[in-house]
Amino acid sequence: MSDLDTSEKILPGTAPAEDVIFQLEGDADFDTGEMSLSIGPAHPATHGVLRVVLDMDGERIREARPVIGYMHRGFEKLAEYRDYRQIMALTNRHDWLSGFCNELGVALAVEKMMEMEVPDRAQWIRMLLAEWNRVLNHLMFIGSYALELGAITPMFYAFREREDIQFLLESATGGRLHFTYNQPGGVKIDLPKGFLRESARLVDETRSRLSDYVDLVLGNEIFQARTKGIGALPPEVALAYGVTGPTLQATGVPEDSRVTEPYLKYGEIDVRVPTGDNGDSFDRFAVLLGRVEASLEVIDQIHDHIGPGPVNTKLPKMVKAPEGFTYVRTENPLGQLGYYLHSDGSKNPWRFKMRTPSFSNVQVLPYLLEGQLMPDAVAILGSVFFVVGDVDR
Amino acid sequence: MGVMESVELPKPLKFVFNWGRKYSLWAFNFGLACCAIEFIAASAARHDFIRLGVIPFAHGPRQADLLMVSGTLTDKMAPAIKRLYDEMPEPKYVVSFGSCANCGGPYWDSYSVTKGVDQIIPVDVYVPGCPPRPEALLEGIVALQDRIQNESLPQRMEDRRPIILGTDGQLHALPAAEAAAKAAEADAEVRRQVEGVRP
pTM above 0.90? Predict the structure, then answer.
């Protein structure tokens, strides 16, 4: 990926320019005029309230325009009126499938500003829970993507695993989706007794059940027919649009900030980054499954490293970041999450800017959908992994 | 409005009809945010509200009896939900699932969030929590089913007082006429006191 090819085909208006007009032979009067089709905002295939306006030419999509903002809740502005501990509760919710990883980013940013030392055990605990959260997130997408292609069963399988993992995380944090477990300088409380034993057991169980998904979904003939070669994304286009996470890795770029720019203790362990070859919908799904397996490997390593010790540092009554600014990037389940924190020395941030992975991933939709057939639109929409709250903030 | 809504049915007939309606609630999930995930969890294997007769596979609002609003409603989204609600046939029920749908939740001071779905459409059951556990949704559904079993449709058309989970019943909103009478009474009382002090 050394030379970025920024040729004109990157632009959405000029992608695959072959004959996109669908014509029935022998029926010249058949009207294949253009029509505009609006998917969403309340459509199950868009994972929430994303709206995609498709300009159709018969069965072909001539142009796709994502309309975002139906879930805009003003996180960045609200963060300016919350103190640093309250921001954790807020950031939990913008990407609701990866709450722990979100709050981790804020904690790291505040610690960087305050130059805080975080105890070793707290860092390992954070990594452990972040990886479990990654598994949770990916399981949701594994289930829902199969659901969008017409298979209901994988959803129930995914939620069987999710419930077990949520039960584990709940025992430590008290939350099922939104954990609010981090605080500047560590985590709120230590893990409960027997957590690591249960976690190790769950790793084995989840790993043994992953073969279910491979048999049921990935190896499925119908699934392969619907996803292979559909929505192929070249790596240079993905990089030009700022696509990150599994969607980028499926194109063959092994970019993962846990490896390329390690934070916490990720430098001390091996993180495997699964990649794909073609960057099509099938590869994206396969990478997602591979990432679950990689996360389970990471969790195994964390179990070996985690030792006794304190889990947090004493905090002043009011956490105040010193004047200045910082940018922290972490690897969220869906890609790279960046927090730009600008403080004027008071208890609230002066500016709190988010760089969310889903927002960048959605930008590539016009490129992917252009020139595709209508039935493939859902297969593409579901495989570019995004959470609408993360898009709109 | 049909015959069912305008005529008071005989008691045995009403019992049978209500019993039938209670256990075949076709739900239209209006999944907006985090709560939608907990809604799916409630419909999945462990919690499984399908065993209560709530079927989350309504093809659209026109085939649904129950609208589940789960998540944050923004001002941009509000017209869409009003339209979907209007498309539903009577008798229709609304469950507001989660703090955001109840009152704005953690975004109570946001510039773009509607502070409660009840500003747009009438709500039958409020389920509090951020997000509520699936068990809370089950409780909400059971509360709604109790109501359906005991209700008379003509009365419902006039008065839709909501159920608020987690309260003892004292906080239930009053029907409009009663509330207006109470407010007028309170006003009169204040005026009497003020006039008593300053003749």
Answer: no
